[in-house]
Amino acid sequence: MKTLIVIREKDCQWARAFFPDMHPFLLTICNKPYVEFLVDFSLLSGIRQIRLLSDGPLGEVEEYCENGSRWGAEISYASIQSGDDMQTVLAKNKRFCAEERCMIINGMVFINYGKQADYNAFIAAFPSGEILSCSCGSLMLTGNPSGTRNISPPYPFTLSCFDSPGLYYRLSSDILNDAVSPYVLPGYNNEPLCHIGRNVVIGKSAEIIKPVILGDNVQILGGAVVGPGAIIGSNVIIDRNSSVIHSVVIDHTYIGEQLEVEKKIVSGNMLIEPESGVSLAIEDPHLLTGIRKSGASLSFIQYAVQALAALFILVLLLIPFLFLFPVLKLRGKWMQHNEDCYADISGKILNLSVTAIERGGLFGSIAIFLSLDRFFQLFRVLAGQIAIIGSTPLRVSPENREHLKRMPGYRPGVFSYAEAEAWPVDHDDKAIIERFYTAHSALFQDILMTVKAFVNRIHEKSTP
Amino acid sequence: MIIRENTRDSVSTITLAGTLDALSAPELQSFSENSALSPNVVLDLSDVDFLDSSGLRVIRGMALKKRESGGDVILACMNDDVRKVFNNTQLVRLFHIYDDLDAAVTYAETNKKSI
What we know:
The complex is a heterodimer. By secondary structure, chain A is of the alpha/beta class. Chain A is built from 14 helices and 31 strands. Chain A folds into 3 domains: 2-163, Alpha-Beta Complex (Spore Coat Polysaccharide Biosynthesis Protein SpsA, Chain A), CATH 3.90.550; 188-290, 3 Solenoid (UDP N-Acetylglucosamine Acyltransferase, domain 1), CATH 2.160.10; 300-462, no CATH class. In chain A, the strands form 8 sheets. In chain A, strands 11-12-15-18-21-24-25-26 form an 8-stranded mixed sheet. Chain A has a 6-stranded mixed sheet with strand order 5-4-1-6-9-8, with helices on one face. In chain A, strands 13-16-19-22-27 form a 5-stranded mixed sheet, with no helix packed on it. In chain A, helix 8 runs antiparallel to helix 10. The mean pLDDT of chain A is 89. Helix content of chain B is 43%, strand content 32%. In chain B, strands 1-2-3-4-5 form a 5-stranded mixed sheet. In chain B, helix 1 (25-34) packs parallel to helix 2 (53-68). The model of chain B has no long low-confidence stretch (mean pLDDT 90). The chains are: A alpha/beta, B alpha/beta. Chain A binds chain B through residues 55, 57-59, 62, 76-79, 81, 88, 91-96, 98, 406, 421, 423, 429, 431-433, 435-437, 439-440, and chain B through 52-54, 56-57, 60, 77, 80, 83-93, 96-100, 102-103, 106-107.
């Protein structure tokens, strides 16, 4: 048998809204990613071949789950369109589903199963069609059952909706408060209601009250009170004299000193009231903030090579710049302004000098020909703030903030990958090229692309 | 790059084998421009072992051209490496992707009727 897990973007929109830094498939419930619960259920049903389907990006999920070998499963991935009905989804995965029965988990649903159970016989004998459904999705089977057995409710597992922070909070609390957890949860556990991850540092005067779950790399400083009912994700710091009670703290969060968190979900700098869904973004990083890597950062060698290349271009352009800049400035053909751009995918802002040189006239043409409009930005490469070649810097705007979420390797550059390729005709083409090269970026390729971008710009500007 | 075209159920199927990069992409482009293809075309990518941005450009260009005239390009049987390129560039949103050639041809055939 095989399992198809079909979760569309519309099913997990709520998770994207409340937990924007986490792929909905990887949203942790008691520190275990949601998708792992579905994989566990498949394995308990005797199914090892699993395919994850979505109409959104699956890169992060693929990076986490890989081929599923760590669970003894075979996981593959495929894409669907948002408007595809179940028949089309099955047709698109005909080769995967052919000849064998297929269990389909459709929608963002939570299956309440038991880790001790074996659903193999139940699933194998259940007739084709829907097993369970709720307003968020369903669990169904295709293909003919093996043998004939009369199966009637109640079934050994149930299905529940998973479509709001309230349900997420209640589900997490229920699992946490269950003394004999029906699920395998991560962390060390030698007594009920307490799971502790790896590399946890607990200050001497800190107090931990059961039930509690602590993730990996958690630091709880002196005087802090964690629990009862606290789920602390991985890479979390709880500073001095703070308390976290009946709350869920998502991975990569810093909780500042003397902060009282009660009956809340904390994700980065967001404080969410589970039942009402009201969220509050805390702007003061000393109170609450996310702890994240800033995305596509450069290694030292990459930085050194990029800085050398920038220095070389600066030296090359220095004399033409010293001559042309005052002339064009005096003639009013050199227009310069500062612009706030995104520095990385975390949304950090960088103030960048943007130059526009008016075309026309010999001096203007030479300046454009030599890419003197990028002269000032080259200094930012030396400072390690931008790359010599990367994505087109995105101006700060709500629209671009959304766009940024779809650019996982975003790293602004003096020249863009799109300029190095001759084919982009519209914004979508540029985005495709930039996504391609940020995903396949390599040191020597970057040097080659910089030269190409430089040459292409000469060509572009010399063509009327 | 080896490009083979055949017609199944009145749907043109282009089978590509080898590397689709800056060197071979123009071949595919000129092939698609100079061949009399059905409105819906199925691209069988099962034997494509490498695809770069130039290859993406040609496939995207083919799809946009076909869509202008009411047709489409349907992708079939892409291997993991090729799928990752489509996934990274988010071109997956633009195409109907089938893991089976027959299913892709059936879709192309039924979709043609609805045009």
